[in-house]
Amino acid sequence: MRTKAWPSLQHGIGMIEVMLIIAVFSSLLLAGFLQWRVRSAEEATRQEQTQLAQAETALISYATVNYRLPCPAAVPGGLEDCTTPAQKGWFPAQTLIVSGIDPGVSVKQLRYIVQRGGSDFDLASVASDAWRPVEYSGNSLAMRDTSYSSAPIRTLSDFCARLAQGRSQTYNAGYASVASSPGRLVAFALAHPGLEDKDGDGNLFDGVNALNSTPAFEPADRGSLLSSYDDVVSERSFSSLATAFNCDTLNNSIDSVALAHDLVTVVRGMRDENIDSANTAVAWAAVSAVLAGVAIVQTGVGIASNAGNAGVDAAICAATLGFAVNACAAIGVHAGAAAIGGGVIGLNAVSIGGSIAAIVMAEKAKTKAMASGSDASTISTLTSAVACLPPGDTTTASLTAQSTAAIDSFNAQITQATNTRTIAQIDLAAARIELAQAQVARQNAINQLVAAARNNTAPATSTIDGDINMVVSLGDNLLPLQTDYAYAQATVDAAQTKTINATANLAKYQNMLDNRAAFTISTQTAVDAASVTLANLRSSGASQADIDAAAKTYNLLFADLLILKNQGPPTGSTPTLADLRDGAQVELTDATAALSVAQASLTIADNNRTTSANNYTSAYDNLLLKSAGNYTIFYPPLSSPSFVVSCTTGVAGGPLACGTTTVSTYGDVRAKLIALVGFGGDNGRSAPAADSVFSKPEKIQRKITALESEITAYSNMITDLQTRRDELAAETATALTPLPTCTTTTRNNSPFSPSFAQQIIEVVDRKGGSR
Predict the structure, then answer these.
(1) Which pLDDT band holds residue 316 (cuts at 50, 70, 90)?
(2) What SS3 state is found at 711?
(3) For residues 407 and 728, is the Cβ–Cβ distance under 8 A?
(4) Helix (H), strand (E) at residue 462
(5) In a 10 Å sphere around its CB, with 0-12 CB exposed, 13-18 middle and 19+ buried, how is residue 503 labelled?
C-alpha cells in the first residue's frame, strides 16, 4: 500500500506578516494625518480670530466717523444694504473700503448682525439728533427738548444715546442677539464659518449662524462645546461699545458747558424778575458747580485709565524684548490720550468758572435787593440789564484767566509731546545705524562659522555646509515664534490683572450699595481729611509729585462721595452706583472672556514655539556631531591635495579614532557657533539667545517699527492739540469780550449774555465735546 505524499511547504512571506506590515504602515499614516489636522486647526483658529479682530476694529472706526454702524450686506463682502430692516447678513467689506477704512484680509466670508430692533436703539440708521445736553427745568435735570437755532446737530453723542437706550432693553427674540441661555442682546456680532460644515447641512456656517430668518448668532464661547460646530463668533455689547467710545466723558464735557449756559440765563432772569429768582439762581449755581466738578473728576479717572493702559503696553513691550510691535507703538497713542485729557479739564474749568461767577453775581444782586428793603418792582429796576460791570467786579478777568490757563495747559502738552517725539526721532536714527551694524556683524559671524567648518581655508567647500545653512534657516523660523510666545504670555498676564481689578471693583460697588449709609459717612470723613492734606501740601511748598498724588486721592474719594449721595445728572451722563456695579460686572465678564482667549492663544504659541525649537536644537546638535567627523573638506580643482578629511576624537557620538592625515575642526566650529547664536553663558542650543549676534538685527528692526509708529502717533497728537488750542482761543476771545465798568453802583449784569452762552454750547456740541 502506497502512502500519500504531503505537498511541500511554501517558503516566503505569509498572509499574517503582510497584514502586520499593512497595520504598521496604516498606523504611521494615521498618526501623521492626525498631527497634521491638529496643526492645521490651530493655525486656522489663529487666523480666524485675527480676521474677526480686524473686522471689529474696522466697524468701530466706521462708527466713529459716521456715527452709526453699517447695515449688513446682501452678498459676501459687498456694499451695505439699508433698504430693508434686515439685522443679519454679510460683513459689508466694500462699504468700509469705500469709506477709507481697511477691513482686513479674508473678511468676505464673515457674517454680520447689527442691532436694529428698535427705532431709538437702531445702531445702523442715519443718526438723528437723539441726544442733547441737559438743562435745569422744573427743579430737575432733563435733556433739552428743543433744537438749536440752526440745523440739528448729529455727532457721536447721538450714537452714544442709542447705546444707552440699547443697554436698558430686555431680551427679545426679534432683536439682534446671541442664542445663549438666557439670550442676550448685542450691539453687533461677527461670525467666521470655520473650516468645515460640521453639522452637515450643506452650509459652512453651523447652528443658528446659518439661518437668515433668525437675527442671532451662536454665543462666542460655544465653539469648543459641540462636535457639530466649528464657527468662531465675536460679539460686542452696548456697554462695551459705550466704553470704547468713552461716551460718559464725551457727554459730560458738553453737559458742563450747557449748565454754564443755563446759569447765565438764570442770572439774567434774576436781574429782571425778583428776589425769588435770586434765591433759585444761587441754589442752582451751586448744584451746577458740583456737576462740573463731577465731570472733571471723571475725566481725571479717564486720564488715569489711559496712563494705566500705557503702563500695560510698556510692560508687554519690555516682556517681549522690544519685539511686540503693536504694544510698543500703542504707548505713544495712550500717552497722547492722556495729554489731550488735560484739555478737557482746561475747558471744563471755564464752565466751573462761569458757575462760580454766576453765584457771585446772584449773591450781589440778592444782597443789594434785601439791603434796600425794596419790593419786587424796585428790585427789578435795581438789577436791570446793562452792558457793563459794577465797579471792582472781576468776573470777566477771572474767566479770561481760566481760559488763559487752559490754553497754557495745551501749550505745555504740545511742548511735552514735541520733546518726546524729538527723543523718539533721535532714537530712530540711532537704531537704523545700529541695525546696519548688527546685520554686518551677523553675516560676519555666519561667515566665520562656515570658514571654521572648512578648516579656515579659502576657497573651499565642505560636506557640512548644508548643516550650517539648516541651523541658520531654522533659527530664523524660530525668532518670530519666540516673539509670539512672549507677547501671548504678557497678554495673559495683562488679562489676569484686568480680571482681578474688575473683580475688586464689582465687590467694591456692591459693598457700597449694600452699606450706603456707613460708606457715605466714612467717605465724607476721608474726603475732609484728604482736603486738609492737599491744602497743607500746597501751602508748605511740597513737591509737585506729592501734590499731584494727594490731588488724585482727593478726586477719587470726592467722586465716590458724589455718587453715594446721588449727586449728578441722570443715568447715561454720570453713572449711578448701580450703573457702576453693573458696569463692573460687564467688565468682569469681558475680562474673563479675554483671559480665556489669551490663554488659548498662549497654548497655540507655546506649541508652535516648542516644535520649532525642537527642530532647531536637533539641527544644532547634528551640526556639532558632524563637525566631529569624519567629513570631507574639498579644495579647488588642481590644488594638492584636492581634499582633506576632518576628524576629532573624544566627542560623544563621534569617531573613536582618526587617521594620521586628518584635520580637527570641531573645537573651532563649536566656538564659532556659540559666538553666533549664544550670549552671556547661553550657548544658544535651545534657541538663539535674545541678545545674540544672530537675533540682534530682528530685535532692532522691531524697535525701529515701534519708534516709527510712535513718532506718527505723536505727530497726529501735536496737530490735534494745536487745533483744539486755537479753537478754544477763538471761542473765548469772542465770548469773554471785556465789558466797561458801570457808572452807577445800583445795577448789575451777567458775565456774558445768554446769546453768547448759546453760541458756545452749540459750537461745543457740534464739535463733539470739549475734549
Answers:
(1) low
(2) helix
(3) yes
(4) strand 461-462
(5) middle
Greater pLDDT, 594 or 56: 594
Nearest-angstrom CA–CA distance, 432 and 424? 12
Predicted confidence band of residue 52 (pLDDT cuts 50, 70, 90):
confident
Q: Collapsing DSSP states into helix, strand and coil, what is residue 146?
A: coil
Three-state secondary structure of 558-581? HHHHHHHCCCCCCCCCCCCHHHHH
What CA–CA distance (Å, rounded) separates 754 from 167? 35
Q: DSSP string spanning 336-405?
A: HHHHHHHHHHHHHHHHHHHHHHHHHHHHHHHHHHHHHT--HHHHHHHT---SSB-TT--HHHHHHHHHHH
- For residue 679, the model assigns a pLDDT of 93
Q: Which residue has the cell 582618526?
A: 658
Amino acid at 649: T
Most confident segment among 164-178, 379-393, 571-585, 587-601: 587-601
Average of per-residue pLDDT values in the chain: 75
Residue of 418 and 312 predicted with greater confidence: 418
**Residue 448's CB: how many other CB atoms inside 10 A?**
16
The x, y and z cell numbers of residue 208, run together, are 443658528
Q: Where are the alpha helices (DSSP H) in 391-543?
A: 395-453, 465-514, 516-539
Buried b (16+ CB within 10 A) or exposed e, 235-251: bbbbbbbbbebbbbbbb
| pLDDT > 60? residue 270 | no
Residue 190: beta bridge partners? Answer: 112, 234
For residue 110, pLDDT beyond 80: yes
| In contact, 167 and 242? CB cutoff 8 Å | yes
Determine the pLDDT at residue 369.
46
Confidence of residue 761 (pLDDT cuts 50, 70, 90): low
3-class state of residue 153 by DSSP: coil
pLDDT tens digits, one per residue of 507-522: 988 998 898 888 889 9
Asked whether 148 and 762 are in contact (CB, 8 A), the reply is: yes
Q: Residue 527, exposed/middle/buried by CB under 10 A (0-12, 13-18, 19+)?
A: buried
Of 350, 301, 284, nearest in space to 553 by CA: 301
Residue 42: count of CB within 10 angstroms of its CB: 16
φ, ψ (nearest 5 deg) of residue 648: -135, 125
> CB neighbours of 558 closer than 8 A, spacing ≥ 6?
293, 297, 527, 530
Q: Identify the DSSP state of 69.
A: P
Q: Looking at the predicted structure, is the pLDDT value of residue 372 above 70?
A: no
Pairing of strands 216-217, 177-178: parallel
Cα(351)–Cα(346) distance, integer angstroms? 9
210 neighbors 231 (Cβ within 8 angstroms) = no
Q: What are 700-741's pLDDT values in tens digits?
A: 998 898 899 889 989 998 998 899 888 878 877 766 555 566
SS3 135: strand
